[in-house]
Amino acid sequence: MMADHICDVAVIGAGTAGIAAERNARRHGAATLLIDPEFIGTTCASVGCMPSKLLIAAAENAYAAAQSDIFGIRTGDIAIDGKAVMQRLREERDKFTAGTRSRFEKLPRGTTIRARARFTAPTTLALDNGDTVSAKAVVIATGSSPMVPEPFAALGNDVLTSDTIFEIEDLPRSLAVIGGGTIGLELAQAMARLGVEVSLFDRAETLGKVQDQEILDALLDVLTRDMNVHLGVDVTPEKAAGGINISWKGKSTGHQLFEKVLVAVGRPPNLKDLDLAAAGVELDDRGRPLFDRTTMQCGEAPIFIAGDDNADAPLLHEAATEGAIAGRNAVAYPASIPSRRTPSFAITFTDPPLVLLGQEPGENTLTGFASYTDQGRAKVEARADGCIRLYAEPEEGVLTGAAMFAPGADHMAHLLMLAIMKRVSASQLLEMPFYHPTLEEGLRPALRDICGATPTPIPGDRDGREPPGG
Predict the structure, then answer these.
(1) Is cis: bond before 151, omega within 30 of 0?
(2) pLDDT tens profile 192-247
(3) Which residues contact 316 (CB under 8 A, 6 or more apart)?
(4) pTM score, two decimals?
(5) Which of 2, 212, 405, 470 is the most exposed place for a label (fewest CB within 10 A)?
(6) pLDDT in tens, 135-194
């Protein structure tokens, strides 16, 4: 039987952003509805952060076992059971998604509606179960889905995406990875360290949005130990006996047969079925609503957009923040409550991790550099790879950003992010004690570089050198 639902705030999509939007709207006194066709859990738990880290964890263990001879520990031949790797991945992944789904069961009765929604007006929705929704404000949080360009889309189950790769029963013998962004980098290295023959292809001449040449060189040095990397190439796939033949041309040329192909060239927003024309919001040249990232509001409309579907900062912590901002402003509408957004913060969980945070360098930006190829703690742990670049304002040397590819960078990044947000200078950071021997000590040469380019001196009561012996 069809029903007409009336609420203060309707949220379309029950992923990270949608969950945060509904929760914050309800916390601020709104009667809410959360609409989703499946309620299967968040992208992060089901096909993103958590299953990829489960695969990476398996790869790290395999790599550590294979490298243990360095420490005088003999393990013998390493056997990787691909079926067991994938089985554990799915079992643990399913626990994460179950935890997410259990939250839906705890919502107030009548809050969730299992259906697909489309706009019929700015504040009215038609659902594919025949129901309608009237709201004072609507939050769009429909997430994203993998892009599979032609001609890959026509090649069947041998073509994988980040939504399907975790469902394979066994590790493939060979894998072509198309795309050198976060997903491509993480899964390519993990598969390679699990014994899969991997080649990574990208049309660009960089990887992971890295702009610093020395960091890119360090990244390529590590990756090419485990796989082939072809940058600046266009690829052509063709179905063949035993898999898919990939031909490439550009900065290099060649062809090779792969058992599977992972297409990781982006995740466009899930917007096409919403009938945004009926919503009356202004769209950009890609059909995405224009919005204010401090309020998440689409123009002057009672419509807000949060998470991957706005294609602004497709990261879990950003989606949760955007959802909370959108939920609060949906309740406040027509009033507007701008929020101060945090600096950009992205981690790619390669080994070592790749981190980009804060502002990209400008014409007058000061920079500091430090290599980890001879860093004491990194050498102790036999992972002396990579380098870091810190960015700072001229004059006082206040930190503004960083690009890092170094052991422990995923942890050190949090220290640097706090410094950026609190407008701490390189000189002030050098006043902090650095315990020995730690990876954090490796930041000091870069901080000293910045101090040397400013009137702010290196603290006079701190040693200006690295500890003797490492």
Answers:
(1) yes
(2) 999 999 999 999 999 999 999 999 999 999 999 999 999 999 999 999 999 999 99
(3) 16, 42, 44, 48, 49
(4) 0.95
(5) 2
(6) 999 999 999 999 999 999 999 999 999 999 999 999 999 999 999 999 999 999 999 999
